[in-house]
Design goal:
The structure is a single chain. Strand 8 and strand 9 form a beta hairpin. This protein folds into 3 domains: 10-50, Arc Repressor Mutant, subunit A; 57-258, Bira Bifunctional Protein, Domain 2 (BirA Bifunctional Protein, domain 2, 2-Layer Sandwich), CATH 3.30.930.10; 266-305, Roll (SH3 type barrels). A 7-stranded mixed sheet has the order 3-4-5-9-8-7-6, with helices on both faces. Strands 13-12-11-10-14 form a 5-stranded antiparallel sheet, with no helix packed on it. It contains 8 helices and 14 strands. Helix 1 (10-17) crosses helix 2, helix 5 crosses helix 7 and helix 5 packs across helix 8. With 307 residues, it is an alpha+beta fold.
Length: 307
């Protein structure tokens, strides 16, 4: 948050914004009414102590101005799915680095056709990426994104684990889901564009369906603290920019492997076969050792931890 540790005078703000001191005071009162905690001290000025999760494009643009990617933000109070909207934009030539954000989703999407419960209070966004990558790297993108979210949460003191291939867990419950979708050039066997959707549970939801309460959790419940979702978004974008560039070198795999929720456990595949998860291929395929000693590589479907 800007000026969270220091004061800025009303005169400076008025000069920067080319408005009167009275206008600055009125804006401060409006921000306080919207939930911002602003401290004011005579002869010192104003200090932002805390702020609610309010979308502010200028704040986001300033925070990512050092990034190589020209991040562009589109915010909505409600969408059926940020991935759906982002795919529509990408199909109409929206640039790489477009970020679609929704306060809630009415039809959030998970892998393999599953739904993703998406109430207000959490972070839901999708990123359009136009990468010169072969189709074979599709799973790498999802795993790479999971590593980026892991690193971003770590910056806020939250240590999660990555469940193959697209979930992050905290205290053995799901806290984040990732869904990568794209459009492919069949002739060149390459990606035209990718849409990477990320949903992270930040706040306790008293309306959470009973059938999900033993499966999912949120940062507030597990840590007792509330992370500003836009500060978290900024950190994820910074980490994602770095790791996506390194996909051909597979550098994300070290993070992905060391912080795996899946490795070393007995897993059950969709066909009912069970085995021990022992490692990952370079493209993030899951290597499973079966009871007869043979190995199988899983690249589609799911692997449920059962021990």
């Amino acid at each position: 948050m800007l000026h969270a540790e220091s004061y800025i005078s009303g005169a400076e703000l008025a000069a920067d914004c080319q408005v009167s001191r009275t206008a600055v005071w009125k804006v401060m009162e409006q921000l306080r009414a919207e939930g911002c905690q602003i401290e004011s001290v005579p002869h010192k000025g104003y200090r932002l102590v805390s702020q609610p999760d309010l979308f502010c494009e200028s704040y986001l643009k300033r925070a990512v101005k050092e990034c190589r990617t020209n991040w562009q933000f589109r915010h909505f109070k409600e969408l059926d799915s940020t991935n759906n909207f982002a795919k529509e934009l990408a199909a109409h030539d929206a640039p790489s680095g477009t970020v679609v954000i929704a306060d809630q989703q009415t039809a959030g999407k998970g892998r393999i056709g599953k739904s993703f419960y998406s109430p207000k209070g959490n972070l839901y966004f999708s990123v359009i990426e136009k990468l010169a990558l072969p189709i074979a790297h599709m799973m790498s993108v999802t795993a790479c994104t999971a590593a980026a979210v892991f690193l971003a949460l770590k910056q806020f003191g939250v240590m999660t684990q990555i469940k193959w291939v697209n979930d992050l867990f905290l205290n053995q419950k799901k806290i984040c889901g990732i869904l990568s979708e794209g459009s492919f050039n069949a002739e060149l066997l390459s990606m035209d564009y990718l849409v990477i959707g990320i949903g992270i549970n930040l706040r306790h939801d008293p309306g959470c369906p009973e059938e999900l309460r033993s499966i999912i959790t949120d940062l507030e419940t597990e840590t007792g603290t509330c992370i500003n979702k836009y500060d978290l978004l900024i950190e994820i974008l910074k980490q994602l920019e770095i790791l996506l560039d390194e996909i051909p070198a597979h550098s994300y795999l070290d993070i992905y492997t060391k912080n795996s929720y899946t490795l070393g456990h007995t897993v059950r595949m969709d066909n009912g076969t069970e085995g021990t998860a022992i490692g990952f291929t370079e493209d993030a395929g899951l290597i499973i050792r079966l009871s007869d000693g043979t190995e199988q590589i899983l690249r589609t479907g799911s692997a449920t931890v059962i021990d």
